[in-house]
Design brief:
Elements (H helix, E strand, L loop, with lengths): L22 H5 L4 E5 L5 H11 L8 H10 L4 E6 L2 E11 L1 H5 L4 H5 L13 E9 L8 H15 L4 E6 L14 H9 L6 H8 L3 E6 L13 E7 L19 E11 L5 H17 L4 E3 L18 H9 L2 H14 L3 E10 L5 E8 L5 E5 L5 H7 L17 E3 L8 H9 L4 E6 L4 H17 L3 E9 L15 E3 L11 E4 L6 E8 H10 L43
């Protein structure tokens, strides 16, 4: 932060805010805009943070996505000539959490903003940065005004954050510790641009927080807990706000697909379109197909292909499948999670990829991170490098392809980024394999307080290697708490029968459960004891990925 204009704090009776005329109404296209951050701003925010904090680690795109998705009303961007030049992120938390000893990683949920509590009575600011090249536009002051307006609108007790003291290391020999440094800054005997700016904007120092941000070398890990109290709210004791039991209905359909021999691509296309059409008639928001559902395309080959030849042949269909399913999504007005399809990537490796075709025409990809021993042996499939939420018109979703659902850290990553629905396309040959996916899917729903939707293949494909028999009972799973089905199952299909299973789920129930449920798995994590470190794709471009050699034959089927 580079600006330090004084912002007077209102103390009189609450007045109605004047209606601001949009700049575009009077002066044409406006150059400066302050608004809530959106997923499309992620790249611009990441670039801004790198410019501002050259001496500290930058945010990953996943962390910024999580900050926005977990509390979109609390994240703001400033755009000047359509470039992101300012960003601030906040969350609501309880007073006890805000004022107890903590560090930045712990309070922010390792940077994802995942500790946002809609029942919290304080607004906690954990990011504020302004492009140092932008002078005289008062970006920082404008962003602080947005924070204050949000606190007033929500009737919150106030705003609290831990501010940096970047001139501390430079003046360390002149003072007797960080507490003395703070006193000298308040007395205007030492200049600190960040603290002076915050003091000028009506914030009062509460105490020094030691060890708050180890990466902040200039402050030597110290920060000052700064407080602004809402002048329109008077409370003697902390209160906990209640979260209304609202309705955010989403209708999901899971297709339990019969693996059948088809005469040509057109017949395969008609079979898929049939279920898309039916789900659309039921006004479903999503339909999900099973893992490797495109293996049916090998059934009309003149001869049985070797595993390597089969994968190569399937990969040739990739552009056509993406185009056709994307077209279906738009024509039938439904979001399609297109199971998974083996695809040869630009580097020559084969990956197992889920194509998510949204009804707005966009196509997203999620690679399978963990190929099974079976996939590595038969098809030499390699795992992808990243997993992130996919933005949709009903909020962020995640996709875990079969075996990936058995690795808890992947689902936790998606939940931290804001996913409330996780789709699991799977392909298993036996009840044991299926139950591994089923039980892990239920566990992911409980520990992340989200919905998990499973979709599997049934039947068999003659002359197609590795698709001899299939076992599935597709289902829509929920957390186990009072707002949900008593057994944690919103709906499920009959075993090994081709069918479409549809259910309405209420995303607002998840918000309530995360804030006020019997157990609160997301909120009750011990951030002071453990965390997951992600090696982001592209972070170490010179470091080769380890190549796992194919293993010997194993039980056919995933999961």
């Amino acid at each position: 932060m580079t600006e330090g204009e004084t912002t007077p704090v209102a103390r009189g009776p609450k007045k109605k805010r004047p209606v601001r005329r949009k700049a575009s109404e009077k002066f044409g296209k406006r150059r400066l805009e302050i608004r809530n951050a959106r997923p499309k701003d992620v790249r611009g925010i990441a670039a801004l943070v790198r410019r501002v904090y050259e001496d500290m680690p930058a945010y990953t795109h996943g962390e910024i996505r999580g900050q926005i998705n977990n509390f979109p009303e609390g994240c703001f961007v400033a755009l000047l000539d359509e470039e992101v030049v300012g960003y601030c992120a906040t969350m609501q938390i309880a007073e006890t959490l805000a004022f107890q000893d903590h560090d930045w990683d712990e309070i922010t949920g390792n940077g994802f903003g995942s500790r946002h509590d809609p029942t919290g009575d304080w607004l906690y600011g954990y990011e504020m940065c302004v492009d140092p090249k932008v002078r005289g536009v008062r970006i920082g002051r404008r962003l602080y005004e947005e924070r204050r307006a949000l606190a007033e609108e929500r009737d919150l007790t106030g705003i609290v954050f831990a501010g940096r003291m970047p001139n501390y290391r430079r003046n360390k020999r002149k003072v007797d510790g960080p507490e003395d440094y703070l006193e000298q800054v308040v007395a205007t005997k030492i200049h600190d641009p960040v603290l002076r700016f915050q003091l000028a904007n009506g914030f009062e120092p509460a105490r020094v927080m030691r060890g708050y941000l180890p990466e902040d070398k200039k402050s030597e890990s110290n920060a000052v807990l700064m407080v602004w109290r809402n002048p329109y709210v008077e409370r003697d004791q902390p209160v906990k706000k209640r979260l209304p039991r609202g309705v955010e209905a989403v209708r999901v359909a899971t297709c339990q697909l019969q693996a059948r021999a088809v005469a040509d691509y057109a017949e395969f296309h008609r079979a898929i379109e049939y279920f898309v059409d039916v789900a659309s008639d039921y006004e479903a928001d999503f339909i999900v197909f099973p893992e490797l559902f495109t293996l049916q395309l090998l059934s009309f080959e003149e001869k049985q292909l070797s595993p390597v030849e089969a994968i190569e042949r399937l990969s040739e269909y990739t552009p056509r499948i993406k185009a056709d399913i994307s077209d279906m999504a738009m024509r039938y007005n439904i979001n399609i999670v297109a199971g998974s399809h083996p695809t040869r990537m630009d580097d020559g490796d084969i990956h197992n990829v889920a194509y998510v075709c949204l009804r707005d025409g966009s196509v997203h990809e999620q690679e399978k991170i963990h190929p099974t021993p079976n996939e590595r042996y038969w098809w030499n499939i390699r795992g992808g490098d990243s997993i992130d939420v996919i933005p949709t018109d009903v909020g962020p979703i995640g996709v875990l392809i079969c075996y990936d659902s058995e690795f808890p850290e992947l689902a936790r990553r998606l939940a931290d980024e804001g996913a409330r629905i996780i789709f699991v396309p799977f392909c298993t040959d036996s009840r044991q394999g299926y139950l591994r996916v089923r039980y892990c899917g239920q566990a992911r729903a409980i520990e992340n307080q989200c919905f998990v939707v499973l979709s599997g293949n049934v039947g068999n494909l003659p002359n197609v290697g590795n698709m001899d028999i299939q076992y599935a009972q597709s289902c829509i799973l929920t957390p186990c708490d009072f707002p949900f089905a008593r057994d944690g199952v919103a709906a499920e299909a009959s075993e090994n029968v081709e069918t479409l299973t549809i259910s309405d789920i209420n995303l607002a129930d998840l918000s309530w459960a995360r804030a006020e449920g019997t157990v609160r798995n997301l909120a009750d994590r011990r951030f002071d004891l453990y965390r997951i470190e992600w090696d982001e794709a592209g972070k170490h471009p010179g470091k080769p990925r380890p190549r796992r050699e194919p293993l010997g034959p194993s039980t056919v089927g995933g999961g």
